[in-house]
Amino acid sequence: MTFILFIYCIPYSSLSLLLYMIFKTILYQIISFVNISIMKMHIVINNLFLFYLYLSNHNKLRGY
C-alpha cells in the first residue's frame, strides 16, 4: 500500500522525479531479468520433457 502511495504522491520537483525514474528503471530491469530467466527455464524444461518422451518412445520402438 505504501508502495502505491509512494508512486502517486511524488511532488513534481526535479530531484524526486529523477529518483522516481531511476527507481522505475531498476524495477523494470529486475522484472525483465526475472521474465527472461523464467522463459529460459521453460525452454529447458520443455526440452528435457521432449527428450524424455523421445527416449521412452525410442525404447518402446526398439522393444526394450
Q: Can you put this structure into words, describing what you see?
A:
88% of the residues lie in helices and 0% in strands. The protein has 64 residues and is an all-alpha fold. It has one domain (1-56). The longest helix is centred in the middle third of the chain and has 49 residues, at 14-62. The chain starts with a helix and ends with a helix.
Name the assembly state: single chain
The fraction of residues assigned to DSSP E strands is under 5%
Shape: rod-shaped
- Radius of gyration from the CA trace? 24 Å
**Structural class per helix/strand content?**
mainly alpha
Ends distance: 60 Å
As residue ranges, the low-confidence spans are none
* Biggest sheet architecture: none
- The H-and-E topology, N to C, reads as HH
Average pLDDT score = 76
Report the helical percentage: over 70%
Number of E strands: 0
Quickly count the helices: 2
> How many domains comprise the coordinates?
1
Transmembrane segments: 5-23, 29-55
Keywords: Membrane, Transmembrane, Transmembrane helix
What is the strand and helix layout of this fold?
Blueprint lengths: L1 H7 L5 H49 L2
Keywords: Membrane, Transmembrane, Transmembrane helix
